[in-house]
Request: fold
Amino acid sequence: MNWFLGHLAQVGGLLITHAILAVIPLVIGLVLAIPLGWLAHRFGWLRTPLVAGTGLLYTIPSLALFILMPLVLGTGILDPLNVVIALSVYTVALLVRTVVDGLGSVPDDVAQAATAMGLGGVRRFFTVELPLAVPVIAAGLRVAAVSNVSIVSVAALLGIAQLGSLFTDGFARDFLDPIVVGIVACMVLALVLDVGILIGSRLLTPWQRTRGAA
Amino acid sequence: MSFLWEWLVNPAHWQGSDGIWVRLAEHLGYAAITLVLAAAIGIPLGLWIGHTGKGRLVVVNLANGVRSVPTLGLLFVAVLVLGPVLGGDIAFLAPAIFVLVVLAVPPILAGAYAGIESVDPSARDAARGMGMNSWQVLWRVEVPCALPLIFSGLRSAALQVIATATLAASVSLGGLGRFLIDGQAYRDYGQMAGGAVLVAALAMAVDLVFAVVQRIAVSPGLAPVRTSRRSTRTRPVPNPA
Reply:
């Protein structure tokens, strides 16, 4: 506890970097997964190659992916961009499947009613299908957010500063305090992101609340 | 790219006590010990929870809670706390295996529990109607029907263990992670990238083996269930480390 109070500024700085490294890939992943998921949902034959292909990327262990990123991107090994892109890859891999499931959960009669009301493909997607898929997509996003927070810390082994640096520093000095502070900070960050997405999802789907109350 | 290729095809890198074959065997050894221990804990517990319906909430919260614990931090704490107590040769190995087991149990447990939970209630009723007792219902109906989800739990646990075993090199253990960590220390990017390619290939190979075993072990009558919407949603979500 004393160590934590004495290093508030340092922990705070690392926490902010950690949050940025975890959240940016979440946004990039979501933005990419929605059109890919739509393609897989709309064109059945694309479903297996897209879901299986992105699933294959998900099997690559994070430390290996961080190290291989410079080969693809031409960046230096210490560039935080490696972490951001690698985590975006994981997020897309996880969310494509979720978006397909989410769009699949929209009842057929609802989609047909929207078409009958004269909504074109694009408008129907953004005003009817996507909003109805929000609860399922949000569930996938929560999983991605929580695992991103944990994976970012692995990048400390390569010398990229964030909360994981507290683990490597503590381990090198045989000193538990920074490690424990780092673990708690990671878990708090994961919890905040998890609850944030849950609240966002509730706000985007007000009909779910009224249905629950009725 | 050429230095990566040169590192991989150099026969000197494959032989000897710190060669690729030995590191690969160590990596698979850690993963195998962990999976056996985690399955011995997770499968019976998951079957029991699925069969009796007790402790459901505990499982869901446990699986989510463990996912939010940063793997690397947990590994370091385990080695610093347990290492001095154990001493000797297992001072690093035992804490690392312990952490790997802690991470592997939740997906296996969730798979076994979700598998039993997803069994069609009419199949269960029919089995009772045929006069089976609780034990027979579990082994002859529920477990065979739950196999697809039990396997996907094992499969995501295996992937997670292969990934996390890579980190074991940072607490001076062996495994393929050695090339990643040592390459970093010697500023030898060829070795780091070569090791990373081997780890990625190993993960994909293990995933493929599980997919094949799953296809052989699961009753063909259950095959369509795997692609249905209901089963994909109850599928335990994997988590790379």
